[in-house]
Design brief:
Blueprint (H helix, E strand, L loop, with lengths): L6 H29 L11 H9 L1 H25 L5 H12 L9 H11 L24 E2 L6 E5 L2 E10 L5 H17 L2 H4 L4 E8 L4 E8 L8 E2 H5 L7 H20 L2 E2 L8 E4 L11 E4 L6 E2 L12 H4 L17 H17 L15 H5 L4 H16 L2 H4 L2 H11 L21 H17 L3
Helix pairs in contact: 1-3, 3-9, 3-16, 4-5, 9-11, 9-16, 11-15, 13-15, 15-16
Length: about 450
């Protein structure tokens, strides 16, 4: 299996495991410096050793946090492996190598089951799986969420988040229905704490003469905090520590990685599609917990796109120039999501909103948005302004963050050095673009130490 993986993926995995080895070695060395040589055979520490450890435990808390950030990068890389059809063989090898004890002997069937669980059952519908569709609900009970396109509702005293996906044409209703099933099942199995995506409860389907409507119902985040869109936070004066902003950036980048490993593209990434829970109680060092929503335009990464769009100038700010307007030039690819991420990370790093509180363009991009030029020319000018703005990140948040944003904004340029040319990324299972995303975005964001 290893020999069948792309060389870039192999190199990335080696780097990740070397990074873990280095972190664990530093942990052991640091612990021995504090408490002396560790007792053999797992014997407990002496009283004086425990006292020394307590005094310097904060240093080890930082080390634990560093290992957690390492896991944030490793997990998506492991899920990316499941794009290979031979993934189940890896689990069989893991069982044999580690001599894992099971209640039943290891078998290819068990290994294949593990692989299927890893991919969150995104292969397609199964006759053994219950329906993802929920009974019809009264949409009048769907209440707006501040600065977000998502809604919230309450049923039997339990809070839920509702996100709409619309199939505007009956022509593609079959493929849309299949995508809805697959995404719902995938989001029912993933862990929100790891993926940054709420767990899906099910889907409410309604139809009219011209379209089908799908309302994704998600579990509310733990606690009773009122959610709001990330735009609301961006519109308030900074006062937020760089650590808090960096956590939001990492969360959004990680959510996109998980969605792509599930073989879906989002197509609607912007501050309105990122929900913050706990923002009202947030401090300067904590903006709350972020979750990706806004799946109204998602589709399978392998499916054909209708190349349909809209003329919303706000949404166009977050779209690559080739995907703007009512009839975009390009088919939608994962790189388009990466470009949208770059615009969001730009706002997060500078702590500025490209859309003002009154719904008008910010001063940074007002001239380009309001210019009396063709949509194509306007889109190119806006991208140029965003790249110019990105250079302000050098002083605001540092070189690494600046490099990540610039890589995202130029990910589809012909001479891009981070993601490569279009021909470089044309592999059958999307592992090359996934690998480069992890290396260029996730790993660099997690290398930032404050």
């Amino acid at each position: 299996m290893w020999d069948q993986l792309p060389p870039e993926y192999q190199t990335m995995q080696i780097q990740l495991f070397n990074g873990l080895q280095s972190r664990l070695r530093d942990a052991v060395i640091g612990l021995e410096r504090v408490v002396g040589p560790l007792p053999p055979d797992g014997r407990p520490l002496k009283a004086v050793q425990k006292m020394k450890y307590t005094v310097l435990s904060s240093k080890f808390d930082l080390l634990v946090a560093d290992i957690a950030r390492w896991a944030d990068v490793f997990d998506p890389s492991w899920y990316l492996l499941a794009r290979k059809e031979e993934a189940y063989q890896v689990f069989a090898q893991v069982q044999d190598t580690c001599n894992v004890s099971y209640s039943v002997p290891p078998s290819p069937t068990l290994a294949k089951t593990m692989a299927r669980q890893l991919t969150a059952n995104v292969e397609g519908p199964s006759s053994k799986t219950g329906s993802v569709f929920l009974p019809h609900a009264d949409t009048a009970n769907f209440l707006p969420i501040s600065h977000s396109d998502a809604k919230q509702t309450t049923y039997d005293g339990v809070h839920f988040i509702v996100d709409r996906r619309i199939s505007a044409s009956p022509i593609n209703s079959t493929s849309t229905l299949e995508d809805v099933r697959r995404l719902a099942r995938a989001l029912q199995k993933q862990d929100p704490a790891t993926s940054g995506i709420l767990k899906c409860r099910g889907v409410i389907k309604t139809e009219d003469a011209s379209s089908m409507h799908f309302d994704f119902v998600f579990n509310h985040a733990p606690g009773d905090s009122v959610p709001c869109g990330f735009r609301k936070a961006l519109l308030h004066p900074s006062g937020h520590a760089l650590e808090a902003r960096l956590n939001i950036a990492r969360s959004l980048a990680r959510s996109i990685a998980y969605l792509h490993t599930m073989k879906f593209v989002h197509k609607n990434i912007n501050p309105e599609s990122l929900l913050l829970f706990g923002y009202e109680q947030a401090s300067s060092r904590n903006l709350g917990t972020a979750y990706l929503v806004g799946f109204e335009q998602f589709r399978s990464a392998d499916a054909a796109t209708l190349q349909a769009g809209d003329d919303s100038w706000i949404k166009n700010l977050y779209r690559h120039p080739s995907r703007q307007g009512t009839h975009p030039d390009d088919q939608y690819r994962m790189q388009h999501d990466i470009y949208s991420l770059g615009v969001c990370l730009l706002e997060t790093g500078l702590w500025t909103s490209l859309v003002s509180a009154t719904g008008t363009p910010s001063q940074d991009i007002a001239d380009e948005v309001l210019a009396n030029t063709s949509e194509t020319e306007k889109a190119k000018k806006i991208k140029e302004v965003l790249i110019t703005m990105a250079h302000r990140l050098l002083l605001a948040v540092g070189t690494r963050y600046h490099d990540v944003v610039l890589a995202c904004l130029t990910c589809m340029d012909e001479k891009d050095i981070d993601f490569g040319t279009e021909d470089d990324l044309l592999d059958d299972d999307g592992m090359v673009i996934g690998t480069r995303y992890i290396e260029t975005v996730l790993m660099k964001l997690n290398e930032i130490v404050l």
